[in-house]
Design goal:
Blueprint lengths: L1 H4 L5 E10 L4 E4 L6 H16 L6 E2 L12 E4 L6 H8 L4 E2 L10 E10 L4 E7 L1 H7 L6 E4 L2 E4 L13 E3 L3 E4 L2 H7 L2 H19 L16 H11 L9 H10 L19 H8 L3 E4 L7 E4 L9
Parallel strand pairs: 2-5, 3-4
Antiparallel strand pairs: 1-2, 1-6, 4-11, 6-7, 7-10, 8-9, 10-11, 12-13
Helix pairs in contact: 6-7, 7-9
């Protein structure tokens, strides 16, 4: 997928940018000698993502990812608008005093253009950038077997990016850092509140009003609500089957017989995991049903 959106073998220009904690973004002047390192970062990240096993899957807020999944998110997904904007914006002011502002750098990004005029943006959380710039006057180099102080500020580049942004999609390498850069924690509660009416309309036999309170204090629950609401098959959820699965997992409802069932407050998260296919029953080693949960799951091929 990445290779269809950008040709890394025909890079025509490279620009380095930084984003500060206040959200302002600037370009930083770079010398041509740095180009090879930036090309290596792009190649390493693209290869690392592409060689992962399994089919490409769309990012889900409810999934716990490792380093083995090939995951993308459409750039049109509003929850990633902060990252998507890095691709959209065509011009930034230049920063001439990066050292002075090093403590305010949140993440950095590198903009590449290929010879066909296409663009790709690599993004990386700036932990290493700040630590190296903060080590000024404590770094030394060996010259003729003599230790000599490095008087100029040093910027140590990372070996890869946390993710890549192309014209259509965002690709993930380091999931936690990409979620940090996208400020997902700050957005997910609002997104969940907006999606609850969608769930209530599609799965009309469950009362979703109990999920409306304190979403900002329960980010995991909010993530599940958003993820479930994006499923394309919500109108096919079967009430009898859902009730059987919920009962097997110990979910209790307080108004049995009502047309819109309300679960106990203590079972809210458990019910959402049932709806998101994160709960199952095993009878492999016992006659009794043993409930399990999966924070990460992948659909198996027959």
């Amino acid at each position: 997928m990445i290779e269809e959106e950008f040709d890394s073998s025909s890079i025509s220009s490279i620009q380095l940018g930084v984003s500060l904690f206040d959200g302002s973004k600037y370009l930083v002047p770079i010398d041509k000698s740095v180009d090879k390192t930036f090309k290596d970062m792009l190649a390493r990240t693209s290869a690392d993502i592409t060689v992962r096993s399994g089919e490409w899957e769309e990012y889900s807020l409810s999934q716990d990812y490792g380093k083995v999944e090939r995951v993308f998110a459409p750039r049109s997904d509003g929850i990633f608008n902060d990252i998507s904007d890095l691709y959209e914006i065509e011009a930034y002011d230049h920063m001439a005093n990066l050292v002075t502002n090093s403590g305010q750098v949140d993440f950095y990004f590198v903009i590449y253009h290929d010879k066909k005029g296409r663009k790709i943006v690599g993004v990386r959380k700036a932990a290493q950038l700040k630590s190296m710039l903060g080590a000024r006057n404590r770094l030394v180099q060996l010259i003729d077997d003599t230790m000599v102080l490095v008087e100029h500020p040093v910027f140590r580049l990372d070996i890869d990016f946390d993710g890549l942004v192309c014209s259509n999609n965002i690709y993930f390498s380091n999931f936690l850092n990409m979620e940090y850069i996208a400020k997902i924690t700050n957005k997910v509660a609002q997104a969940a509140a907006q999606r609850i009416p969608v769930l209530a309309a599609k799965i009309d036999f469950i009362d979703f009003k109990i999920f409306e309170a304190d979403l900002d204090k329960h980010p995991r629950t909010a993530r599940l609500l958003v993820a479930i609401s994006k499923r394309a098959n919500l109108d096919k959820y079967n009430q009898d089957e859902i009730m059987l699965q919920a009962a097997a997992q110990g979910v209790k409802f307080t108004n049995i017989g009502a047309s819109c069932l309300k679960c106990r407050t203590t079972d809210k998260h458990k019910l959402l995991e049932v709806l998101d296919d994160r709960r199952w029953i095993s009878r492999n080693t016992t006659d009794e049903a043993v409930p399990y949960r999966a924070s990460s799951r992948q659909r198996a091929k027959p």
